[in-house]
């Protein structure tokens, strides 16, 4: 990941010369055509099994387990999490986190990461003791800090520390699953809970991996794009005023319905086009795949970049310009070359929830708080690492006093 900025620049240069599909190395192909990438991905992940040979052997399980089974189990929980009640609860958690940090001058990109990630934790795993909650928090904090670091230090010590934290988080998840399965801990309305019912089929190893995959997922893209939204508010003050006017009319209990916030929804969609995290998705071909002109053997890698696809001048007018109004005339979707939530069948299952959370973040910062942007010698800008990271974005969040 250290090389991502240079790598991205190089990939962009080569795309301008060679087009959307080219070989990066003998075993890696860049696929920057959204339709071809979608067809490759559909074949590659048609029947993704989740292996756990030792666990299966020990438990005498013979049936293969597919990733689709696990994703399907999350479906009903995720639908409930985007309903009015759950979105209001998410909003209140975000509000409480902002209130804790209000009044002090801060790195606002870091603040957005914390608010987005920590407020999502209870939807993944709820009801933990303070000690266990702190362990999980530490794990996700390492996750988003790593992602936002522009020059990661891969020292042995930092790798060891991260691994130890991941292992501890895995133990917490395992203990929670076991406690719920044995009736010693309460069942909860979180995304860990459906895995308790699946334990006889999938076993503890896969269930723990599924929950830790969720923890990784919430520690990355939501806060990264949340930080970019703040950058866009700073850079495009006229848009902040449009958002303030719209969101002042929408109560927090109405945020689950995107139709209530058309302007903010366009703003969020455009931020996701400009700074879609992660900037590169590298996938290993699980089988031989032929989608002309791409031929992949099992084990080779295809690299998709939502970031570069979203800036393809053949698909987008003025691709480098932040213009939420473009969404008045354009429908989102893969066929339009828009893939901020990745490619089917692996598209982000938290897409709807993630979008609602970003709208909630805008609502909080436009109605309950105001941001006093700090003057800094160097103006805020976006740096490209594994994700787009706003740098020099400092300011103070203050509660709005209501009269
Ligand atoms: C705006 C916020 C978010 C963005 C931009 C985002 C983006 C993404 C992207 C680009 C992928 C990779 C898809 C692929 O491989 O093609 C992904 C995967 C995933 N996301 Fe999100 N995500 C967001 C929020 C969330 C939330 C809130 C959750 C949890 C509820 C979540 C859970 C996941 C999971 C579990 C995967 C792995 C899916 C799989 O491997 O099948 N994401 N996300």
UniProtKB/TrEMBL annotation:
One Pfam family it belongs to: p450
Cofactor(s) demanded: heme
Positions with a binding annotation for heme: 348
Keywords, in A-Z order: Heme, Iron, Metal-binding
GO molecular function: heme binding; iron ion binding; monooxygenase activity; oxidoreductase activity, acting on paired donors, with incorporation or reduction of molecular oxygen
Record's keyword annotation contains Lipid biosynthesis: no
Keyword check for Cell inner membrane: no
Family that this chain belongs to: Belongs to the cytochrome P450 family.
Protein name (Swiss-Prot/TrEMBL): Cytochrome P450
